[in-house]
Amino acid sequence: MTEDEKETLLANNYLLSALSIRPKVKKGVPRGSRWIFGPTTLRRCVVAVVVFSIILIIYYSRQTQAPYLSKFIKANKRPEPNIRCGIVSGPRLVQNHDHRTDAQLKSYPKALVFVETIYSKLGKDIAELLVHTRIKYKIEVTGKSLPVLTNLDKGRYGVIVFENYNKYLQMDNWNRELLDKYCREYSVGIIGFIPPEDETYVGSQLKGFPLFIHTNLKLRDAALNAASQILRLTRAGETAWGELPGSDWTVFQANHSTYEPLEWAHRNDFYQINESGVRNPLPTVIQDHGLFDNIQRVIFGYGLKFWLHKLLFLDSLSYLSHGQLSLSLDRSILVDVDDIFVGEIGTRMRPEDVEALISVQERLAAMVPGFKFNLGFSGKYYHHGNSEEDEGDDLLLQNVDKFMWFSHMWNHQQPHLYDNLTVLMDDMVLNKNFAKQYGIPVDSGYSVSPHHSGVYPVHDLLYIAWKKVWNIRVTSTEEYPHLRPARLRRGFIHRNIMVMPRQTCGLFTHTMFIDKYPGGREKLDESIQGGELFQSIVYNPINIFMTHMSNYGNDRLSLYTFESVIKFVQCWTNIRLTSAPPLQLAENYFKLYPGESDPVWGNPCDDQRHQKIWSKTKSCDSLPKFLVIGPQKTGTTALYSFLSIHPAIASNLPSPTTFEEIQFFNAHNYLRGLDWYMSFFPSDTNSSARYYFEKSATYFDGELVPKRVHALLPHARLITILISPAKRAYSWYQHTKAHGDIVTNNYSFHQVITASDTAPKPLRDLRNRCLNPGKYAQHLERWMTFFSSQAIHIIDGEQLKSNPVEVMNELQKFLKITPFFNYTDHLRFDKNKGFFCQVVNGDSTKCLGRSKGRQYPPMEEKSLKYLQRYYLSHNTALVKLFKKNGIRIIPKWLKEDLSDQNDSDS
After folding, report:
1. What distance in Å separates the CA atoms of residue 774 and residue 875, rounded to the nearest whole number?
2. For residue 510, is pLDDT > 50?
3. Minimal CA–CA distance to 829: which of 799, 801, 796?
4. Gyration radius of the chain's alpha carbons
5. What is the pLDDT of residues 19-34, one digit of tens each?
6. Parallel, antiparallel, or unpaired: how do β-strands 717-722 and 792-796 relate?
7. Residue 497: left if φ>0, alpha if ψ -120 to 50, beta else—which one?
């Protein structure tokens, strides 16, 4: 007999014994007349009924887990994990966890997602899920024509997704036949969602298919088809009890063997009860095996608001792509406990809390191999509680070997507030000495900064001190690139310290009691049972969760949270959870995502949280407001000198290696960090200047540069100078030759520009530096992916040379610089140099160096003709780009290049 059955039997026996009391009958009252109870008997009956009612309430609340009853009964009591899942301890159904097939796949592992508009809610949900799981995708707004589906002999996409499946059904014949043919030839499946409709359909047939739908239903109690081969990440066997979100569900009824239900639910009423008194299950997600038209599909009767559909969507992507778009089933989890000795009296851990921590850790280790809590300490606050809490501190240290440990700061001070390396290191040494005194390990190689200070935005002194004192090799933060949205968190490496993305579990220093949790226990359970916390574990292969010491005392919410969510993950997924020390997790992370090693520096001035943890010695005003991005050999140095004359403009300090150019965004300098970059813009460089800029001519064609610039300087304005690309290529060749380049001394210009891909690498490299920057349209389009065309000012290099005053006047208007500077009095044509120079001392001129304005022998005719043909398509694309972005004035050199090529063709 179970404990619940015993409780029920005991309650019934108690009631029977309580009610089997003979009433007192007054003398003289004939038998069969009305009984009269005495006051004692009446009181006993009332007590019995009350006691019985309480027992029933307790029993009912345990059986149904009704939240309002639980709250009433368990007031002021700690929550206990209540995840009941029969399949966690019972036998598991064998499922195909590898969707790879023997088919010769001819498509790339990428999803094509058709949305109704770029603002549609379900479309955003799909895109966010794909971003979170790092699955490659392309968004396409449903329109009259299809995007290009093939690339030579390969398909561009492995799965097609329709936010609105009706858009697929209602395609015109030409596009529908084209898409279906693509799916059949390349073994590509389709996922579709039936959208909510104002009109209710009963038994409506989907156009062209033996499948019928019933719409706008309220449903409850969802369950999965355990026999489905789609299930991989998702585990069947349990039922998601209770009402399902929304009242606009669609259910399916099939009339063909090609269809198999993937998920069922029941109506949230009594209409579907059959003759046996059982409610009929209704298919809510259905699989099309392709037996009808040789195209496999999965069709959802509801969107992604229901958490289980997110799992099924990921499994459908995996199945329909033949395993190309599959997620690994391995997950790692680490739980940091920040501030283990830091907290106000009354919020700290007592001995029984420490014992509970050890006990729960043992249970979690049984479910998650290698699991240990990771305790972060600031030694200054040891024994800062009441006597009982101090005993808790002692008990932690008596069990020091049971946990992992990492260092905070000694006094919990934010590192970005230190501007002296020695003082910062002294603070760390105090904490290290404390660790040695009490036997805390000091070789974990992991540390976390209080409030993420100095980790990101980076404070280089913190990284230097960490290395010197603790030999830190890994840390973690929630702030890169921003706290929210969590799906965008990534890792990076700076100064050989690996920075891991850190996840939150909804618990913070102030969430100590369940009744104080925002939204109460119901909201916390929602996060655990399919919500944000559960999904964090599902989507992230490596999870480092942040918690605080206060979450382990009082109501011990963290113990409740992690034991519950791990059980729920095991109940509903086939995920294999493990744990490991931070250093091992970090090494695994960057093996999975090597492309994340290089950081992308964001602008701390655009994030209030980042400004609060950014060094006070740094100023947002010292970041440049505009950049001269090149390309090389178009006149950028001349423009730099003209800009520097303006009293309201200041350039960066010169670099010892690259002179006026910092070359930050496109070179190894980028990995030096933001502190290094900002050192070229000290706030006291020029007190009268209000506009800082930098010029690096190599930025123009750098593949990563536009993304990096936009991340740090999203509001910057960009200036580029264009001349004839043929002339620019020849000028670059002559420039390198004048600087003693070996290749140019061994090869003529024509040999360089016509070199094949089998030529020696030095020759190919020079060819590329001559030719590639001149593909102007290609590079400008990359910049326009991140910056609007209104933020980019294009200067005609020939006009800059012949009429710089007019060019500088237009540039001032574009930059909106005040006061307006009259360049007429400050620029003069120098006959000896052949270009304009700066006027100094009222009469003489100051020109660029000897290397500028150098006279070269004319280019060979055959080289000029070759380059005109080479750049024809690029120049044509440039004209189209100008017109597309409202640039009406076509440079004279561009017209001439196109005209000369047309003349030679004719």
Report:
1. 9
2. yes
3. 801
4. 36
5. 333 444 444 444 444 4
6. parallel
7. beta
Closest alpha carbon to 585 in 449, 466, 444 = 444
What is the structure's pLDDT at 85?
86
Residue 85 tokens, joined: 């899942």
Q: What amino acid is encoded at 878 in this protein? A: L
Read off the tokens for 423.
């003082």
CB 295 within 8 A of CB 541: no
Give the CA distances from residue 29 to residues 32, 33, 41, 104, in Å, rounded to whole numbers and listed in that order.
9, 7, 18, 97
Q: How far apart are CA 234 and CA 237, in angstroms?
A: 10
Cα separation, 643 vs 640, in Å, equals: 5
Of 707, 630, 631, 638, residue with least CA distance to 670: 707
- With tokens 């585990």, the residue in question is 235
For residues 479 and 450, the answer to whether their CB atoms sit within 8 Å is no
How would you label 797-816 residue by residue, b for 16+ Cβ within 10 Å and e otherwise?
bbbbbeebeebbbebbebbe
Chain centroid offset of residue 743 CA = 45
| Distance (Å, whole) CA 100 – CA 627 | 49
The Cα 532–Cα 535 span in angstroms is 5
Contact 163, 115 (CB under 8 A): yes
How far is the C-alpha of 409 from the C-alpha of 391, rounded, in Å? 23
* Strand, helix or coil for residue 899: helix
CA-CA distances (angstroms) from residue 265 to 56, 163, 301, 683?
Answer: 30, 22, 11, 65
Cβ atoms 349, 392 nearer than 8 A: yes
Distance CA 885, CA 873 (A): 18
Q: What is the per-residue pLDDT across 5-60, written as a single tens digit (0 to 9) for each?
A: 444 444 444 333 433 334 444 444 444 444 444 666 667 766 776 767 777 666 55
Helical ranges in 646-718 per DSSP H: 674-678, 705-712
Q: CA 867, 873, 874: angle at the middle one, nearest 5?
A: 80
CB-CB contact of 355 with 349 (8 Å): no
As annotated, the active-site residues are 633
Question: Strand pairing partners for 111?
Answer: 137, 159
Distance CA 632, CA 771 (A): 11
Residue 684 token pair: 């006291």
Q: What sign does the CA torsion over 662, 668, 669, 675 have?
A: positive
Q: At what angle do helices 557-572 and 351-367 cross, to 10 degrees?
A: 10
For 404, 650, 653, 659, 671, the CA distances from 656, given in Å and listed in that order, are 46, 18, 10, 6, 18
Report d(CA 298, CA 168) in Å as an integer. 13
**Quick check: 319 and 363 in contact, CB under 8 A?**
no
Altogether, the residues listed in the chain come to a count of 906
CA 675 to each of CA 678, 680, 704, 864: distance values in angstroms, whole numbers, following the listed order: 5, 9, 20, 45
**Peptide bond preceding 819: is omega within 30 degrees of 0, i.e. cis?**
yes
Q: Which residue has the tokens 């949230």?
A: 268
Q: Do residues 637 and 660 lie in contact, with contact meaning Cβ atoms separated by under 8 Å? A: yes
Structure tokens at 237: 């066997």
Strand order in 792-796's β-sheet? 649-651, 691-695, 626-630, 717-722, 792-796
Report the run of H or E that residue 501 belongs to, with start and end.
strand 497-501
**DSSP conformation class of 598:** S
- Whether a cis peptide bond, with omega within 30° of 0, leads into 481 is yes
Q: Is the bond leading into 457 cis (omega within 30 degrees of zero)?
A: yes
| Helix pair angle (725-738, 892-905), 10° resolution | 100
Q: What single-letter amino acid sits at 579?
A: S
Q: Measure the CA–CA gap between 48 and 41, rounded to whole angstroms.
A: 11
- Are the beta carbons of 106 and 186 closer than 8 angstroms? yes
Q: Using CA atoms, how far apart are residues 392 and 574, in angstroms rounded to an integer?
A: 38
Instruction: Note the pLDDT tens digit of each residue in 225-276.
Output: 999 999 999 999 899 999 999 999 999 999 999 999 999 999 987 555 666 6
Residues 6+ apart with CB under 8 A from 245: 305, 306
